Amino acid sequence: MPTLVPLNNQFSSLADDAYLAIKQKIFSFEMLPGDLISEGNLVRLMQVSRTPLRQALQRLQYEGFLNAIPKIGWQIAPLDFNKLDELYDFRILIEGHAIKILCDKACSHEPLNELVKIWLCKTSDRIQDGEQVGLLDENFHHQLVKIAGNQEMLRMHQEISERIRIVRRLDFTKGNRIQETYDEHAKILKAIMDRRGAEAKRLLTSHIDQSKIEVRKITLAAMHEVKENSRLKVKS
């Protein structure tokens, strides 16, 4: 059996930094699905040598964020709406099972208190910033699975959240989706607190299905618009 050679610590750290920086540029729409970029440009952009950069790129390719294009370089993975549908359906399975656990009579609801404070607040106290609500929304679903206590389920859920984050954030560029999310999360939490498991699961399924419908409406034009708005916001 061959011996695994550990990565040089310095290269490993630089690779981690490059990996996180490129992924953040994808999530913030500085790099859009379908964009092509050469390795040379990435070296200059990331200010890192080719060895750690390639480690970062291979990791992003493995996770589905990048495609290698022979003789050209790299491509930000185009949106695959069929794959996104599958990931959203997988979310329903995981979160639905988590709700079943949370609605069990023996399960304490004390860990839900922080979510209750955020999502059952007065209408006047609701956050209107789409970016912040997007983060809070992701945390809401993450916490439901985390509190349920199944670590493998949580790991898979985190991987799914990473894969759909780019379109999920776009969902909250629309004002009506912010208000709808507050209303839907509040109903889900109330049903869980009352241990109405079937209703809580139905509400959750409807909530995620609606997000999936909104994702289908997202176009590259919408992404370019968000990118341009972000650029103007930085300038101002």
What does this structure look like?
With 236 residues, this protein is mainly alpha-helical. Helix content is 69%, strand content 4%. It has ten helices and three strands, in the order αβααββααααααα. The protein has a three-stranded antiparallel β-sheet. Helix 1 (9-27) crosses helix 3, helix 4 crosses helix 6 (130-148) and helix 4 crosses helix 7 (151-170). The longest helix is centred in the middle third of the chain and has 22 residues, at 81-102. It starts with 8 loop residues before the first helix and ends with a helix. Residues 1-8 have low confidence and may be disordered.
Number of helices: 10
- Distance N terminus to C terminus? 59 Å
Helix coverage percent: 55-70%
Q: Main beta sheet, described?
A: 3 strands, antiparallel
Let me know the average pLDDT: 87
Quaternary state, please?
A: single chain
Structural class: mainly alpha
Q: Assess the beta-strand content as a share of residues.
A: under 5%
Strand order of the largest sheet: 1-3-2
N to C succession of SSEs: HEHHEEHHHHHHH
- Give start-end ranges of low-pLDDT stretches: 1-8
Radius of gyration: 20 Å
Number of strands: 3
Tell me, what's the shape? globular
